[in-house]
Amino acid sequence: MTIFTKIINKEIPATIVYEDEHCLAFRDIHPQAPVHVLLIPKKAIPTLNDVSPADQLLLGHMLLVAPRIASQEGIAADGYRLVFNTNRDAGQTVAHIHLHILGGRALGWPPG
Ligand code: 5GP
């Protein structure tokens, strides 16, 4: 079980900005931008490499929810970035897939 399962189960606190039957979004504890929200499925999937066709609706749902959160956070028009870090080279530190929603400033490219 990861720390994100504990957040889903409300066993540890988080600042939740969105929740529905399938997913949960909360503020990153170490924000890398003025807006830094993590959108996670309630289903525990370790990495994006582990998704299956059965997860198609869930992943599509997350991509519908993310812009709604961006809009709610006031960054939709100016712009934002969505990131799934996967495994070591991308710096994934929590083995429960999470979509970073980053915005509120101009973001550099390419990533460091
Ligand atoms: P990763 O590096 O795996 O893509 O992203 C994991 C993110 O989870 C990091 O940005 C980190 O700051 C965040 N994080 C780790 N533990 C916690 C926690 O307990 N609460 C919250 N809100 N964010 C966390």
Q: In terms of topology, how is this protein built?
A:
Blueprint lengths: L2 H6 L7 E4 L3 E5 L7 E7 L14 H17 L7 E4 L3 H4 L8 E5 L9
The chain binds guanosine-5'-monophosphate.
Describe the structure.
The protein has 112 residues and is α+β, with helices and mostly antiparallel strands. It has one domain: HIT-like (HIT family, subunit A), CATH 3.30.428.10. The chain is 24% helix and 22% strand. A 5-stranded antiparallel β-sheet has the order 1-2-3-5-4, covered by helices on one side. A hairpin with a 7-residue loop joins strand 2 and strand 3. It starts with a helix and ends in a 9-residue tail after the last strand. The mean pLDDT is 98. The chain binds guanosine-5'-monophosphate.
Tell me, briefly, the overall form.
Answer: globular
The CATH topology label is: HIT family, subunit A
> Helix-strand pattern, N to C?
HEEEHEHE
| Beta-strand residue fraction | 15-25%
Ligands, deduplicated: guanosine-5'-monophosphate
Arrangement of strands in the largest sheet: 1-2-3-5-4
* Low-pLDDT ranges: none
* SS elements, strand count: 5
Going by helix content, strand content and strand pairing, the class is alpha+beta
Report the end-to-end length measured between terminal Cα atoms.
Answer: 30 Å
Number of domains: 1
Mean pLDDT: 98
CATH class: Alpha Beta
Rg over alpha carbons: 13 Å
CATH homologous superfamily - what is it? HIT-like
